[in-house]
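re: that complex we talked abt at group meeting.

here r the seqs, copy pasted straight from the sheet so there may be weird spacing, ignore it
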Amino acid sequence: MPDYDVAIVGAGPVGAILAGQLAQAGARVLVLEAGVAAGRTWPEYQASVEQYQAAGIKVPNTPYYSTQEAPSPNVLDIRKLTPGTLPADTGYFVQDGPLPFGTDYLRSLGGTMMHWLGTCLRMVPADFEIASRYRQGTDWPIGYEELIPYYAAAELELGVSANVEDQAYLGIEFPADYVFPMRRIPLSYLDQVVAKAVDGRTVTLDGAHHQLQVTSTPQARNSMPNPSYNGGEGYQPVGAYGAPHEGLRCEGNSSCIPICPVQAKYNPLKSWGRIEALKAAGELKGDVEMRTQCVVSRVIHSGKGPIEALEYIAYDEGQTPDPPERITASIYVLACNSIENAKLMLASDVPNGNDLIGRNLMDHPYVLAWGLMPESVGAYRGPSSTAGIEILRDGGFRSQRAAFRMEVRGWGWDFATNSPYSDVEALVGDGLFGRELRERLAERVSRQFAFGFLFEQLPRATNRVYVDDSYLDPLGIPRPRFQYDIDDYTRAGMASARQLWTQLFAHLGASDNTSYSEADPGYITYRGEPYLYIGAGHNVGTHLMGNDAAKSVVDSYQRCWEHENLYLAGCGSFPTIATSNPSLTMAALAFRTSGEMKRDLGLQ
Amino acid sequence: MTPDELRTHLQTAIEIEWSTIPPYLCARWSIQDGRNELAAECIDDVVMEEMLHLTLACNLLNAIDGEPALTPPHARLPSYPTYLPHSDKAFEVSLRPFSRQALETFRSIERPAPGHAAPEPNRWHTIAQFYAALRDAINELGPEIFTGKRDRQIDSSYYYGGGGEAFPVVDVTTANLALEIIVDEGEGIHHSIWDGDDELLGESRELAHYFRFDELYRGRQYVEGDTPASGPTGPPLLVDYSCVQPMRPNPKAADHPEGSELRALTQECDRTYSTLLTQLQSAFNGRPEQLVTSVQTMLELRYQAIALMQVPVGDGQTAGPAFEWRPSRDAV
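got the structure back, here u go
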């Protein structure tokens, strides 16, 4: 008799969805989280907000705490890679290059989704079959149709605000009576300025014409509930964990990344809170037990066949850790993000006959273009982006170059130039202070805007995470080591984006202030033009799913082909990254997977 | 009671609810940032629920084909100090900084009706008596009076942040529910210390307003098992009345010399207050989307009021918001 029905590694969004679904069906679930339990009360969460506010340099992981024993990667550790001095091993990651893998994640209760933006785009139907349609990448084992009900489940779990009429493009279809839980977040003033100049206008990219449209972005951010949701049942927005009257609407605090101070934006604490509430009310059929500061160090196996146990190390920070312990379960789930999943599999020498674990690592290389509008566009009011251009996410051009989506960014030149802090510094340097400083700052910053471009990457075996016993973390577990590059398919997409933003800036009467420094880690060129990418935090594709055991790691339910009681869940299962921010699809897959697990356990 | 009399009383209900809001806001905004957090949270919750009560009172009046008024000449706006409209004048309500005196007033506003108090639309002693009289009238007049236009009702899209949600009042049942929520959130349900949000709204149970103020006033928390008679028996609740901006009670623009900056700032704040009332008036008369616009005005009002509370006016006191009707030329 195993200790638990299900053992889940990782207390992030996928773990929360699976634990909630399975425990409601009657399963006894154990969750092992490597990081700390933070944010469990309102004051504890406010401490994170204060940590963010007090920090001089603000990056996605700034508000959150990572222990030495379960380190998290930090974007501040990303260095320009120089041949001959590799690998670079500052921080947690070890990088072979040729380019740095520029993304972070968070090992803590709630996981990386604590600092996501909240974008909840569905994938477009073509994304599931780019090999058949465009002879690039690989097809998914499931299509858009199959995912429709699971997308709806994910949109309820995360609390998505959007209007169906905005989101039905490029073949995305909804059931006739479907509405999102909440109405769309209003377009920002900047969005409206851009829409006025752009809507219906045709641009020419690589000789082909595209008619443009600015589209409201679906977001897991509380807005006005739609009384027609669920056949007229309506929807009650979910407030903050531990403070249910806070965060019932987005208040425009303008710090979604890295932390929404009121939790109007979804984070996985809300899903954990829902499970706790059911448990407290005696309405949870099964049970969920959470153990934090427990780092899973090995997946125990004897070659092929079922997994036998998980080995984990419980620790108190700075103390000698306990000797490893083992737990057993009927089903094991690794849900600690694509990189940690792959790392753990490889470090455990789990059979990897087709040598695919860790390979086909993808991200959305993210490129910014920034400029100054002729007049104020009210920078820094509300979320960083509430609208974008989505219709370039698919088209015949995908046989030649990467598709992309474009965000309209309302936070000025924020991380392009570290604005507004850099503006303050520059103006103070000019000797300004007091009223004049405030006025000049307001004049300068309020006209700033940027467009952000997310490019698809194709799955490449040579882009990968692997492990090497010469680089270990403080618990003696291998650190993730990377080989990463951006191919010409993706760079050609960047060249199209440059054509787009050049034409758009002209239509807007805006100056183009974009400039990229060769000294930056993400500096690359394509056909003589420079680009600067950063990681989008969308690490995808290290254990890709497929219909063919020889060519994939997991099946369409994220079950390991070689070990029927082991699931690798999360973005690592994506065969391709396409152009949508991956969280919504990740959540939808988790709901689909929970159904298969219930069947495994004989639960309804 | 005739339908017309009921409409008049519902307009009074709106005025009662509105009259409580500026005193709560003054106390709330006088609390210095990061201090007395429990008190601040308590007042925040209460103000938001008073706004729900205001909204539900407007829904009630709209449901029976009335026209809610929040601006003169149809609305009688409070001028502080004031008695609550149609009350028995047992206590006056003032604009004060957060203090024991303010808490005494807040307890008076939210005081539960004694078990034997009769419904009373005029010269009421507790707000519950007043609403009980309205409830009786609605039940007596029956379904025929619900002839109001549905699109004047504020639904769950708009209200948030406190306990409960706004819902359309369309018949006797929803009208009774609205009245019950107004009374129970303030004074407690079934003569207990708890509000009825768990029973009425499927939300978590909280202390009713009166008992939340009572906790602060007595410096001790209510715990499970306490009753109105027992008073709070839990751990001490520390309140530091010194971390408060000492606003001079019942400020007016006219307190400051003509042509002075303070007078101009107080008038500016009055204008924002008046814009807010104008937007709310419009929202409750067929343009609910004005509630979205009004959020910005609410924030503006807060900034201006808090700024006034930073300015010393002598005797160790500061200026403050007057909440006087002063419409601007470009009001919506």
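couple things i noticed - The first strand of chain A starts at residue 4 and ends at 9. Chain A touches chain B at residues 183, 186, 224-227, 234, 236-237, 244-245, 248-249 (CB under 8 Å).
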